[in-house]
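Q: Start with the shorter request: fold the first protein.
A: Done. Sequence, then structure:
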Amino acid sequence: MRRVVLGLAGILLLGGVVLLLGAGRWLVVEDPLEKAQAIVVLSGRMPLRALEAAKLYREGYAPKVWVTHSSEPGATLEAMQISYVGEDFYNLRVLMHEGVPADTIRVLEPPILNTADEIRAVSAALEEEKGGTVIIVTSKVHTRRVRILWHRLVAGRRQAIVRAASDDPFDGRWWRTTGDALDVVRELLGILNAWAGMPLRPAN
């Protein structure tokens, strides 16, 4: 009996290791490209996401590019009377450098704290402009959570085409660097939170 128990424990442990090692690749998903109302640059990983959005714009997938902007650390620094130029400022410069006209770029409101806020801001902008589809550009490891949050928060009212920055070096072998390992852990926890109905909220 002891050998059987140990054998089952070993199998479960091995299965858990295999699943964990494969988590990095499972997190990366992409949707087929098609024409859309706008291409959205989510906050983070500058300039990779903006560069990918500019590439898709030049290829004619959408006539506009939308950029989200974070409320932090700007709000905290403003309270200390320290001027801060947000990430969206630089994303705009990257987009224009890569050939996106300034009058086709829109910074979305309101400022965001997390990905769920970004999804809500994009959905509101789509509704305002009577659009049906957007292309959302993010990092590879972040794609599955973006897709899950879109389906949870927007449902079937609008369509999001989730795309990863093609120059993102993440290849699924997350155990090789601390940065990739932290990304995978954060994404898995974020997905669990989304599946649970988002009981965990961003800190004020």
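Q: Next, the second protein, separately.
A: Sequence, then structure:
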Amino acid sequence: MSNNTDKLQGRRRFLTGVGLAATTATLASSAQAASGDSAHHGFAPARHEQDAWMDANSASHRVFIDSSSTSGGITALNYANNIFVGHAEGYDGAESDVSIVVCFRHGSTPLGYNDAMWGNYGEQFSQMMNLMDRSTDQAFMVNPMNLNRSDYGNRGNTIDSLIARGVSYAICRKATRSFATRLARATGGDVEAINAELLANNVSNSRFVPAGVVTATRSQEYGYSLLYSA
């Protein structure tokens, strides 16, 4: 009887030990997972001087509107207006509550150049962007997004009118180089000279960024909501 009792107690101690070992392993695994999750959620992106301008505002909301096509660049201006209006009407807010950056990159890049550049290269830009004046069927010789007209998707929301409401613009330097190359082929000009000319003639309240795609991703690291305009 004593032998049976000893065996039973020994088995109980063994099972208890197994249970404790399993519990310990489970807790250790959970702690490791939690530690991994904490490290992931605690990710802090590197900061670069080139991106510091995105943090130079105290707005309650930040929005980055990305565009890469002719239609997208036009619609982006309309989206900026809609965000302001929606915030004012739906939230009883002020337009100053929202910081909006509109990005012109890839196919929409020429919308970031001023009237002087459209005066020089309007025929080429209009052809490259498939963007002709509907009222005359001629090329634009000024930046069409600064014409207060209702027959385009931006519905009269011009680059300058949105600047007055606090919108700023980012223009792709990489795409600018590409357009300079295309313009040089079309006009027989010098790529370097045309590139320098374009870089010196951006629209007001705008800046050239190394690459629009990079700035679109970095904007999210600075708390901007990303909206793509097609």
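Q: Describe the second briefly.
A: The chain has seven helices and seven strands. The chain has one domain: 56-229.
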